[in-house]
Amino acid sequence: MSQELKFVSNSRNVLGQSKDKSASISAGDIDNDGDLDLIVANGRHWPESNKIFINNGYGKFTVSKLLDQLEETSYATELADIDNDGDLDIAVGNDMAPNAIYLNDGKGNYTRSTNFGEAYSPTRNLKTVDIDLDGDIDILITNRGKENEICLNNGKGIFSKVLKFGSKDDSTIDVAVVDINKDGHLDLILANRDQQQNYIYLNDGNLNFTEKIPFGTGKDETRSVGVFDFNNDTYLDIVTANIKEPNSIYFGSKKLDFSKQEAFDKTASNSYSMDFGDLDGNGSYDIVVANVNEPNMVFLNLGKENGWQKIILRDKPFYTYDIILADLNNDNRLDIIESNSEEMNFIYLNILK
């Protein structure tokens, strides 16, 4: 059974006082001082400034600054060492505006460097990963209503080579990148909305993704997807967060058919994002779910016999577009950070007794 678990949020556990149209959030040690800082993407369809929040080492964010004086329609910000110089740079994904790279000087100061991907696409998410396994970070772009993109890094933070994945009318909101068939190549697991089929795209080793495997009902409104071996059978499982239908885990097997399914969240909420990790220290992965106009939820994994324990994070509905787990106060426990639209962005410190 899990230990006693409590998530504490108060007037100090916020990222500033402004109520921006925040769409996503990313955590990383921006200034190389040993704690996790945060970058927030703001605007969505309406231009706003993206913001950096600096951790004081105790999970409090007492310093903040604008990433840029520009206001953009940002849906995603991702932290990664894009130019291979040992510090975290920032990739920004914008809706119908150029996506941009910001390079870190090693102290958390950023300079806008270059653009990546097609200039005016309906970008909804980014994934930073070395997809071609050549030692540098590439960027995947998911677009709603347009082909998705793979931007290959030349090793110096320049993305002149762009490949496409998915179909030309995909409404892709999220993508997970993992070797799901254990052949040594990274595959793509797409979360599509607008009642489109969700697919796994298998990598042939040359970044061709022609072979695909469907999962889900075929008419899901999926906004978030993740991959982990939840049942410890050595096969990777797929977890999805959906709009107006249960949030589910699709269990992997040798057949790669993902036909076995479990709804860990049986409600039909407006789920826009989720993340997972061991919140209660029992060795199994738990799930947090971000909802729109409904309370956000925590689902503790109590094992096969006991199922999932549901915890309401805050008994108040927000428009939460993103939710992540990260240890903000260096106590070896995962905390929860919300990215809310037109509401303050709240932090919930994990108090595990």
Automatic annotation (TrEMBL):
Name of the molecule in the record: VCBS repeat-containing protein
Pfam family, one: FG-GAP_3
Matching InterPro entries: FG-GAP, Integrin_alpha_N
Keywords: Signal
Keyword Signal among record annotations: yes
Domain of life: Bacteria
Transferase recorded as keyword: no
